Amino acid sequence: MIFRQLFEPVSSTYTYLLGCETTGEAVLIDPVIATIDRDLSEISKLGLKLAYSLDTHIHADHITAALELKKRVGSRIAAPAFDHLPCADIGIEEGRPFRVGSLDITPLHTPGHTDGHFAYLLGDRLFTGDALLIDGCGRTDFQNGDAEALYKSVREKLFVLPDDYLVYPAHDYQDRRVTTIAQEKKRNPRLGMDKTLDEFKTIMANLNLPYPKFIDHAVPGNKQCGVCPADLPDNLMQYCEQIALTPQG
């Protein structure tokens, strides 16, 4: 397998490039519209062809590149079937492996951050989206989030995997790139060790986080698989339009 971890600094998002060495097909997990040129350049340098984009959930902090990638290179859009996105070509469901070339990706429905959230398992690598972060987890106070559901998702679906499995989150805000199931079980201050459900719910209820500044624009845009809404403030529209202005890398 060909693997790259790519970073978008404005939203601190990790995009994951997975490539099949046999067929040359590739998939981008959680691509960001602002870094589309960089990602396509990386795919080209590796001699791959983008077959799919694959999102873990409907994001609130950035616009997905799924639709623009489809327009640019003809890649198909894969997204959780739970969200019933009319723009998706393939609806991802738990219990149905998702194949890209010789890569068999196992989808795991992990609700809690959002109700339609999925994690993706490939071999010993787990792409957790916002369900499980390094020493943390995604918030649960919008998009039908549910602290109890997230606790069960992590403890009953992710923490039951082998300890040495690598965990690749959708975000990190402290320049960390990867963790393991064992480390999160031992050290995660919200979900690890012997944290009870009641303790976790109390932690999540008292985070006192500000309302996400981009959510009212990102969620409608991402329900269309990556459209920059026309009513964006100038500074956010410039971020959305970076694909045409300043390729990042």
TrEMBL record:
Q: Record's InterPro entries? A: Metallo-B-lactamas, Mito_Persulfide_Diox, POD-like_MBL-fold, RibonucZ/Hydroxyglut_hydro
Task: Name what cofactor the protein needs.
Answer: Fe(2+)
Q: Where is the Metallo-beta-lactamase domain?
A: 12-171
**Lineage top rank: taxon:** Bacteria
Pfam annotation, one family:
Lactamase_B
Q: Which UniProt keywords apply?
A: Acetylation, Dioxygenase, Hydrolase, Iron, Metal-binding, Oxidoreductase, Transit peptide
Identify a single GO molecular function assigned to this protein: hydrolase activity
Q: Is this entry keyworded Cell inner membrane?
A: no
> Where in the sequence is the signal peptide annotated?
none
Q: Which biological processes are named by the entry's GO terms?
A: glutathione metabolic process; hydrogen sulfide metabolic process
Family statement drawn from the similarity comment of this UniProt entry: Belongs to the metallo-beta-lactamase superfamily. Glyoxalase II family.
**Which named protein is this?**
MBL fold metallo-hydrolase
Source organism per UniProt: Halopseudomonas laoshanensis
